[in-house]
Write a structure and sequence with these properties.
Strand content: 5-15%
Shape: globular
Strand order of the largest sheet: 1-2
Distance between the termini: 48 Å
Order of helices and strands: EEHEEHHH
Number of strands: 4
Radius of gyration: 19 Å
Helix content: 25-40%
Number of domains: 2
Largest sheet: 2 strands, antiparallel
Length: 176
């Protein structure tokens, strides 16, 4: 299913053979058709119409190699059951640096969070991501809402651009 390769920059990476992806997708199909799980994946039929697939396919499958020494041949999996309507509650706001101060960012977030409403089933998981590309922000928000990034460092690093959790901002959000 996989093999180790060396990239042009000399780094070792694990290449997943394309044949592995259908096997993983079939595992998703089996889980939702043989276990007592809720079918909630809607597929577009037209621009304005969607239909429940009754099997939660197509599955979003992303594989990453664990490059920590001693883990080179291992995978990390994150399994997320998609909730009904959750795709409709993802928002991306690209704002200027002018709101990057405590008063303005809190007011901005309170206004946007109120727009979410209460249409879906709780519990709600809220993730707010900043300081990266639009594509990476959405992916990071998904991981953060699944608590997959809870072990991130709590300080940034201007030299490497490493992501971090701002526990003080999280606490402020929880108090409101």
């Amino acid at each position: 299913m996989s093999r180790r390769s060396r990239g042009p920059d000399g780094r070792t990476f694990l290449k997943v053979e394309p044949s592995a992806l259908p096997l993983l997708a079939h595992g998703v199909f089996d889980a939702y058709t043989k276990l007592n799980l809720h079918y909630s994946h809607n597929a577009p039929v037209t621009f304005f119409e969607e239909k429940n697939t009754s099997c939660n396919l197509p599955a979003q499958i992303e594989l990453y190699a664990d490059t920590i020494k001693g883990h080179e041949n291992s995978y990390k999996f994150l399994f997320m059951a998609k909730g009904g309507g959750s795709a409709n509650k993802s928002y991306l706001y690209q704002e200027t640096k002018a709101i990057l101060n405590p008063d303005k960012i809190i007011a901005f977030l309170e206004e946007k969070i109120r727009l979410l409403g209460t249409a879906d089933c709780p519990p709600y998981h809220l993730a707010i991501v900043g300081g990266t590309s639009a594509e990476f922000a959405l992916k990071t928000a998904k991981y953060a809402s699944a608590k997959f990034l809870d072990e991130l460092p709590t300080t940034g690093n201007a030299k490497t651009g490493r992501g971090f959790r701002d526990l003080e901002m999280e606490e402020q959000g929880e108090r409101r």
